[in-house]
Specification:
The complex is a heterodimer of chains A (152) and B (95). Chain A has a single domain (10-144), classed as Mannitol-specific EII, Chain A, CATH 3.40.930.10. Helices cover 34% and strands 22% of the residues of chain A. Chain A is built from five helices and five strands; from the N terminus they run E-H-H-E-E-E-E-H-H-H. Chain A is globular and about 35 Å long. The N and C termini of chain A lie close together (8 Å). Chain B has 95 residues and is of the alpha/beta class. Chain B has helices at residues 17-31, 75-78, 82-92; strands at residues 6-11, 37-42, 55-58, 70-72. The longest helix of chain B is centred in the first third of the chain and has 15 residues, at 17-31. Chain B is globular and about 30 Å long. The chains are: A alpha/beta (152), B alpha/beta (95).
């Protein structure tokens, strides 16, 4: 299992300039919709869920991440979209929602069954725990750079 | 063979996060020779899920009071403070 099994070039946005968390969730959600992974309702559902159950994760390095996702009925098949941002945008902390977390790395997950695609989140958690990998990912400007970050 | 302790793992939607956390806890404790049972649920369901549970681990805030100890942590996603949280879990389970 490799994160690149999910992350195809059309689902990666490198050095994307986002206005705010809504902007980046909508952008990645629309990419998942265009690529056929999610239903039309996905973006609104993901934004709604993020406002109630935020997904910002403070990490040990300079870069923090967010992992927006939503209920399975908005998903057609499992998929993943990723953005690295030119500047951080504020997400709320998953475990302490009153806290704001400036996030520069965002993974929007499309999961179509509870407890089924945990390999995807396990891969993401592995990345989040590796400061060196995140550093490489943040400096990537092409899909080849991303591919080189995750050797098979 | 001692009775295995049960940990209830809660997250926002019980789609992915709680599964990753539960697997991670099981694996780390197994490496230390401790066999636990995990169950998963949404944060909003915790109140009706505590029967037979020794400890609740959650990645998202919980509403209400429970007669079971609660550990709030992102350590199994971000890696930060994982060792300390494992010690906290072992202590809370009185192992």
């Amino acid at each position: 299992m490799n994160i690149l099994d999910f992350l195809t070039p059309d689902l990666i946005s490198l050095h994307y300039t986002a206005k705010d968390s809504t902007d980046v969730i909508s952008h990645l959600g629309r990419q998942l919709f265009t690529a056929g992974y999610v239903r039309e309702t996905f973006v609104d559902a993901a934004l709604d869920r993020e406002s109630r159950l935020p997904t910002g994760l403070p990490l040990s390095g300079d870069v923090n991440a967010a992992i927006p996702h939503t209920e399975v009925e908005h998903v057609r098949k499992p998929g993943l979209a990723m953005a690295t941002l030119t500047a951080p945008v504020a997400f709320q902390n998953m475990v302490s929602p009153e806290e704001s977390v400036p996030c520069q790395l965002v993974f929007v997950m499309a999961l179509d069954q509870p407890k089924a695609q945990i390999e995807m989140l396990q891969e993401i958690a592995g990345i989040l725990q590796n400061t060196a990998t995140i550093k490489r990912l943040m400096s990537a400007t092409t899909f080849e750079d991303v591919r080189a970050t995750f050797p098979k | 063979m001692p009775v295995r302790k049960t940990i209830l793992v809660a997250c926002g939607t019980a789609i992915a996060t709680s599964t990753v956390v539960a697997k991670s806890i099981e694996e780390i404790l197994r490496e230390r020779g401790i066999d636990v049972v995990t169950r998963q649920c949404k944060a909003s369901e915790v109140g009706s899920m505590t029967t037979g549970v020794d400890l609740i681990v959650t990645t998202t805030p919980l509403q209400g009071n429970f007669d079971v100890p609660v550990i709030k942590t992102l350590a199994f996603l971000t890696g930060i403070g994982k060792e300390a949280v494992i010690e906290q879990i072992i202590q809370a389970l009185k192992l």
